[in-house]
Amino acid sequence: MRNMDLMDAARLVENSYDGGADLPSIRLVINEGHVQAFLLTDNTLVIPGSNELVDYSKTNLVTGKQKISWDKMGKAAGNAIWHRGFAGYAATIANTLSSVRPTYIIGHSLGAAAAQILGCIYGVPAIGFASPMPRRGKSRLKHEGLVLNVVRNDDIVCRMPPKQFGFRRVGNTEVMHPASPNAGEDHSMTHYINLMETERREGKIVKSWPH
Predict the structure, then answer these.
(1) Helix 84-97 with 110-122: angle, nearest 10 deg
(2) Is residue 45 part of a domain?
(3) Would you give the DSSP letter of residue 154?
(4) Which of 51, 63, 80, 145 is the most core-located residue (most Cβ within 10 A)?
């Protein structure tokens, strides 16, 4: 099973926001409507977050829940109850990949929601940065242990959709605590990376995943 340094993962997803120009060699670019992702030649799937207004109307703000049967990709996770917008986003990526299976998945924000879902579907390691909560239900899925979420305690996106509606993150979560909040900036990958560097030096966060 592949292991990846968290800083390497963070920089990959940060670089995915420039359209892939600064990413390593790319095998496949996914650009289906408002859904973007990059499959690298080593089969790492990199999923950026919300970078268009349409992401909010078509995905992030889509309410309700959805049950998707992806039997060929893992019935236990596919038949779980997910946030409808996040599940639809992840399904578009999976359908575009077709028979190609990623060996590692990294995402930020909206991409982190998709990374959680797809990590459970494919049964591969996944890291989500600034991860929202895409799952309805308390039962633990078969591959949840392969998913890691890195969140800041001052990032409001990480508390969405609200727990009182039954949503949660899947897998494991590392919570970072900045000395002072960065209002309006705490969600960006730049601020995540800066805080990760501090917390790594202080031994407060895992250095790689799986570890």
Answers:
(1) 60
(2) yes
(3) T
(4) 80
The answer to whether position 54 is within a domain reads yes
Tokens of 124: 């591969």
Q: Dump pLDDT digits (tens) for 99-158.
A: 899 999 999 999 999 999 999 989 999 999 999 999 888 888 889 999 999 999 988 889
What single-letter DSSP state applies at residue 157? G
d(CA 71, CA 194): 40
CATH of the domain at 37: 3.40.50.1820
Amino acid identity of 162? P
pLDDT at 91 over 60: yes
Cα separation, 157 vs 21, in Å, equals: 27
List Cα–Cα distances, 60 to 18, 86, 89, 169, 209, in angstroms.
Answer: 21, 7, 10, 15, 27
Nearest to 60 by CA among 104, 105, 111: 111
- Specify the amino acid at residue 55: D
E strands of the chain, at which residues?
4-5, 26-32, 35-40, 44-47, 65-67, 81-83, 104-108, 126-129, 135-136, 147-152, 167-168, 172-176, 208-209
Global pTM value:
0.88
